[in-house]
Write a structure and sequence with these properties.
- The structure is a single chain.
- By secondary structure, the chain is α+β, with helices and mostly antiparallel strands.
- The protein has helices at residues 2-17, 20-27, 36-52, 82-96, 101-108, 150-170, 184-193; strands at residues 59-64, 69-74, 129-134, 137-145, 195-198, 206-213, 219-222, 226-233, 236-240, 243-245, 248-251, 254-257, 259-261, 264-268, 273-276, 282-285, 291-298.
- Helix 3 (36-52) crosses helix 6.
- The radius of gyration is 24 Å and the shape is globular.
- The termini are far apart.
- The model is unreliable at 13-17 (pLDDT under 50).
């Protein structure tokens, strides 16, 4: 019994003498912090998207992970209350770690007790708030209000949030990936049914699709992925820009709708290359059968 007591006392002494940094490291984690320069970069990216979409106005607000306002910019022509609404959207996205679209759609849907959420303090359940993520950590939120529509509010906010996410991935310093090679027979099989040649696994920020269309498609918005399209065969009427009609979120980063209002129309054919930035609505119409095209998706 005496020997056991001595051993325990010795262990306690060793633990006491160990550097405090070892114990501190076991009880803390590295935490990403949004800087003022980062907040200004978010606003700059959202403003660039506003110019691309010809948005008539908007207020862009950026908060840190505690919901504290870091930066705000009001575009010309925006209504006076837009600042408070934008800040509320950004704070709601941070506090609940979700895009605010989730809450507006939840409250608008039928369901007992859903409207109680609207009475929460500092809660703005309106489309246009997006969490800002860096290395899978929420570092802040961006809210936009006062653009042409709720859809445009969200598109501007997504573009702002993605500015830091994309930069973090580019600077991660990951080792080079292995070269991917596809035999002609595999490519032909992929185009015969329309399928993914290379997915986004293994940390890749790109995918390659062997796409096949035999009829017109829905209007689409990829909130994170840019599409680089190369047409191999067939023709189609391709609509880009404008505003998606009856847009519904079918996945975290994907929106589908019935049509596009106010977009630009092009006739595309073999040899054409089209680059569709993330957040831009697009739709294939008047498709010849089959329309074959590569899509390189870049995130």
């Amino acid at each position: 019994m005496h020997k056991r007591t001595c051993k325990l006392r010795g262990l306690a002494l060793v633990m006491f003498l160990l550097p405090s940094s070892i114990w501190a490291g076991a009880q803390t984690i590295d935490k990403k912090t949004l800087s003022l320069a980062g907040a200004e970069q978010v606003i700059a990216a959202a403003k660039d998207q506003a110019h691309r979409l010809n948005a008539p106005g908007g207020v862009i607000a950026v908060v840190d992970d505690g919901g504290n306002l870091m930066a705000l910019e009001r575009l010309d022509g925006t209504f006076a209350a837009g600042a408070n609404v934008s800040i509320g959207k950004a704070r709601t996205a941070v506090q609940f770690k979700k895009p605010t679209r989730f809450f507006e759609e939840l409250i608008n849907s039928s369901g007992k007790g859903r409207t109680v959420m609207a009475a929460l303090n500092d809660f703005t359940p309106l489309i246009g708030g997006i969490p800002i993520m860096v290395d899978n950590q929420i570092v802040g939120g961006v809210g936009v209000s006062g653009a042409a529509s709720a859809q445009q509010d969200e598109e501007l906010a997504i573009a702002g949030a993605n500015a830091l996410t994309t930069q973090a991935k580019a600077s991660a310093g990951d080792p080079p990936a292995e070269v991917s090679y596809f035999e002609k027979s595999k490519v032909d099989t992929a185009f015969a049914q329309g399928s993914v040649l290379l997915d986004g696994s293994s940390g890749r920020n790109y995918m390659v699709h062997a796409s096949r269309r035999e009829k017109p498609g829905q209007a689409e918005v990829h909130t994170r992925d840019a599409d680089v399209i190369y047409v191999l065969q067939g023709t189609a009427k391709f609509i880009t820009g404008g505003e998606i009609v009856d847009g519904k979120r079918i996945a975290d980063d994907e929106i589908r709708g019935s049509s596009i209002h106010g977009g630009e129309s092009r006739q595309i054919a073999q040899g054409n290359v089209i680059v569709v930035p993330n957040g831009v609505p697009h739709q294939f119409l008047e498709v010849t059968n089959p329309l074959l095209y590569y899509v390189v998706k870049v995130r």
